[in-house]
Amino acid sequence: LDHLEYDLLVTNAFAAPVTLTSIAVTAPDGETLLSLDTDALAAVTQRLLGRTPASEIPASGTVAVVMDVTVPPGRALESLGHHITYEVAPDAPVRALLGSYAIDGPQLPVDPRPVTVIAPPVRGDGWLANSGCCAAESIHRAVRVPVDGARIGKQETFAIDFARLRDGEPYSGDGARPEDWYGYGTEVLAVADGTVVAVADGYPEQTPLQAITGMTRPEDFGGNAVVLEIAPGVYADYAHLQLGSITVAVGEQVTTGQVLGLLGNTGNSSGPHLHFGLIDDPDPMLGNSLPMAFDRWTLQGTFDLDAYDAAGSADAPPALTLKEVPQPQEGTLQLYLDVADFD
After folding, report:
1. 339, 303 in Cβ contact below 8 A?
2. Residues 155, 195: contact at Cβ < 8 Å?
3. How crowded is residue 328: how many other Cβ atoms within 10 Å of its Cβ?
4. CA Rg, the chain, in Å?
5. The whole model's pTM is what?
6. Sheet holding 2-11: strands in order across?
7. pLDDT tens for residues 241-286?
8. How would DSSP label each residue in 19-58?
9. Which among 123, 160, 230, 294 has the fewest CB atoms less than 10 Å away?
């Protein structure tokens, strides 16, 4: 399926709290593509900062509804319509001013830009999408960053945090050293031919599983990083690389599969992983996330966070569920908690 991803921002300009009761997404021909209500709607409704589900919009408040609309591959849609219903308390002040508790709108255009198909940025098996598209509980999917006081940026909607697993675990022992983590030191690769437009180096490794330090400027969050321009207006962003490992310089031409550096634990990183995504600006803090897909990979299985958290009990199910038959993929995106083999 194709995923249409966006945040629907809903502002309550009324004098009392309101509760969203349903949202229906429709195609231009009137077909309902997605219907959310009650618990399902509350689960994807969030404050602008954070991922805590919000069932109520406070007076003069705004929430973001994480929209994940799926359609058959290749179906062309020029726009999406919305029908929204809500309710207020029976004793709300001046309740009669509302009149109706339903809204037809907004009508939103669908970006016709095609998905960029790229090679994977790492090789090998056991690569968990520790954050990624498209679940509301994913850190990346919920990121909203103000940009120049003019808009709310969506820099990470399709980006992935790659952490490597062995037997369902990301590290050996207590994971106190970066070297304990199975992904640490992995070669990070160019996903396409391109030009290096930004490099950051000199950031020390963070201590895994401890409070992150040194985040005083926006550019500190990526740590040691590389940005490639792989097409006009399309930039590949690699963050949290190992100190001193970057092998390329600004202005250098690179080819698909070329080693750019090593996976590390620098910047805003509590455990070694690669943050990777495509954006429409060379500055990762300013750009918007662009949809992407990997040319060839294999879906090994899925990771169950709830089962992993409950692993202390004797009857806990395995946290990593592998496919009985691995599923080869072509031109698709690894989604949140998928485990991939990029051999």
Report:
1. yes
2. no
3. 10
4. 21
5. 0.93
6. 2-11, 62-71, 45-47
7. 999 999 999 999 999 999 999 999 999 999 999 999 999 999 999 9
8. EEEEEEEE-TTS-EEEEEEHHHHHHTEEESSS--B-S-BP
9. 123
